[in-house]
Structures are given as C-alpha cells and as structure tokens.
Amino acid sequence: MTRVLILDMAEGDVIAKCLAAKVNVSAIERIPAGGVRLVCSSVDGAAKMRKALKGHLVDGEVTRTRHRPVTPLW
C-alpha cells in the first residue's frame, strides 16, 4: 500500500482533516489541475485518510509541478 493520496480538495481542508484524525503529513503539494497530492508519514495514516476521504480521491495519473530548476545550479 502507498502513503500517497491524490485528493480533489483544497490544501487547507486536507490539513484540517489530517489534524482532526491525528494523522501526520510528510508532504502536501498542490496539483496544477486542481486538488492536492498528500503524502502521509505512515501507511496506517494513509489508510485512515483514504477511508475518511474516499469521496474525494482521484484515480489515475496527475501532472505534478516541477520543483527542480531547469538549468543546473553550477
């Protein structure tokens, strides 16, 4: 099982749900097409959030924002 969830929710709402469920977040990233990519700290936390937010899960591949610079740093 994976720790990653793709959700069609606002970032603040996802963070609030994780805090309420006492699930630690490893990373959260906005998706350009809308929604967020949530990485939970544990597989158990991800399973808990998957169950709590099953109506907001997005299936399939999504395009992520590029985080690294296009040109080398040196």
Can you describe what's shown?
This protein is α+β, with helices and mostly antiparallel strands. The protein has one domain (4-56). It contains two helices and three strands; from the N terminus they run E-H-E-E-H. A hairpin with a 5-residue loop joins strand 2 (25-30) and strand 3 (36-40). It is globular and about 45 Å long.
Please give the structural blueprint.
Blueprint: E1 4-7, H1 11-21, E2 25-30, E3 36-40, H2 43-52
Antiparallel strand pairs: 1-3, 2-3
List keywords for this structure.
20% strand
Mean pLDDT: 89
The structural domain count equals 1
Give me the Rg, rounded: 13 Å
User: Which structural class do you get from the secondary structure elements?
Assistant: alpha+beta
Largest sheet data = 3 strands, antiparallel
Brief overview, please?
This protein is 28% helix and 20% strand. The mean pLDDT is 89.
